[in-house]
Structures are given as structure tokens and as C-alpha cells.
Amino acid sequence: MGSILSQVSLHRIVWEGIQILKANPSVLDNIFEYYAIEPINRDYGAAYIEKIKAWFLSTEIPVVQAWSINPQQAPQISVRLASEQEDESKTSIGDYFGDGEEAEVGTSPFIVNLDILIMAPKNSDEVLWLYHIVNYILFKRKRQAERLGLQLGTFSATDNIRDSQKFPDNIWVRTIKYRCVVQNFWQAEPHIDISDIEIETTVSSSTTFEEAKV
């Protein structure tokens, strides 16, 4: 395996999770079961859960990579790379996979931060519903993420915001900040020790001893 395409992997996990839930909407009863317990059910209840299911099944929810070319398209889930850097605490000179410096594959761990932007129009409740749906997907599909190379995946989230500088005024956004570690590999040349290289120096007969020393 070469470099882990973390943004592509997380996009696939979220997109596939949405499709599976659309094919199995009864799982939403479990995701939103909290709305049906006492005393929460006094304001919400089973009818509210059915409302969420009806919305989810009837609504197209695109999952895109990076910024959408159409920010008016909402609801929408956008997966973008926030940062990726080599993990200095776990790196060392000559990290090779295999038999030391004779190995042909180099390796190094990277810390990756990805943003999952959850967007919905007008009704901020829809952002909350989608957040809990994506939350469920990320936990439910942790093993798949690990198989795709996203190790030690954790996440945090922001509250709903309306950022008029990036999105239209009627779009609410909640961001999930996903953090993981990936192990990237590449073709590596064996270490070359310059002490093993013989350098032939030809000194002209006209060169003085002092010039030759320089």
C-alpha cells in the first residue's frame, strides 16, 4: 500500500453509511431512541422520530469531497482535508519497512485532520439530525476505517453556525473534526554512506602544495 488517501476513505465511509441507512430506515429508531424516553417524549416522542425518518428517506443528501461547487445544495455533507503532517513523535531517521537499510519500502506515520461539514437549510433541526446520523456512521464503521488505514480515529464537533462569508445566509453548518493516524509507505532507496565512495582527485603538476590542501 502506498499513501493513504484519507479524504477519499472518509468520504466513502460516510457516503456508504448513508446509503445503508436509507435501505434500512428502522435503524433510525435506534439512533433517535432518546426522543422517545421519559420525559423527552413529552415534547418529541415516536411521532417525531417518524418525522425524521420520513425526511431522511425523501431527501437527497449528497456527500462530496472538499467544498461543494454549489453551496446552495442543502442538505449536504462535505468532507475536506484540514491538515496532514508527519508525526514527529513517532519518526526517526531511516524508517524502513523490512530488513533495515536493505529494505525497499519506506514508512512514516502522519496525523490527519479532516473536517466533515454538515449543511442544511433554514431548519437547524435538520443539521442536528444529520449530525447524529453521521455520528452513528463513524462509530459503527470504525473497523472499516481501520481497514482503510485510518487508525486511532476520534472526533469532536462544533455547534451550528451560519457563516455568511462562506455559505449563503440560509445555510446552517455543523462541523465534525475527525482526527486519525495513517501510515504512509513509499519506494525507498537504501541509505548511502558517503564514506564508501572513492573520490579520485587529480592534482595538476602546476598546482602548489598549499593550493592542493585547499
Short key terms for the protein model shown above:
single chain, 214 residues, alpha+beta, six-stranded mixed sheet, elongated, disordered C terminus
Question: Brief overview, please?
Answer:
The protein is of the alpha+beta class and 214 residues long. The chain has six helices and six strands.
Task: Tell me what the structure shows.
There is one protein chain. The protein is of the alpha+beta class and 214 residues long. The chain has one domain. Strands 1, 2, 3, 4, 5 and 6 form a six-stranded mixed beta sheet that branches. Helix 1 crosses helix 4. It is elongated and about 60 Å long.
State the distance separating the first and last CA atoms: 49 Å
- The string of secondary-structure elements, in order, is HHHEEEEHHEEH
Task: List low-confidence stretches.
Answer: 191-197, 201-214
- Tell me the strand percentage band: 25-35%
Tell how many strands the DSSP assignment holds: 6
User: What is the domain tally?
Assistant: 1
Question: What does the radius of gyration come to?
Answer: 27 Å
Q: What characteristic shape results from the CA principal axes?
A: elongated
Most strands sheet: 6 strands, mixed
Please work out how many helical segments DSSP would assign.
6
Q: Helical residue percent?
A: 25-40%
Q: Average pLDDT across residues? A: 78
Helix and strand content put the structural class at alpha+beta
Helix and strand arrangement:
Blueprint: H1 6-23, H2 27-31, H3 45-58, E1 63-65, E2 76-86, E3 96-97, E4 105-121, H4 124-140, H5 142-147, E5 151-157, E6 171-187, H6 209-213
Parallel strand pairs: 1-2
Antiparallel strand pairs: 2-4, 3-4, 4-6, 5-6
Helix pairs in contact: 1-4
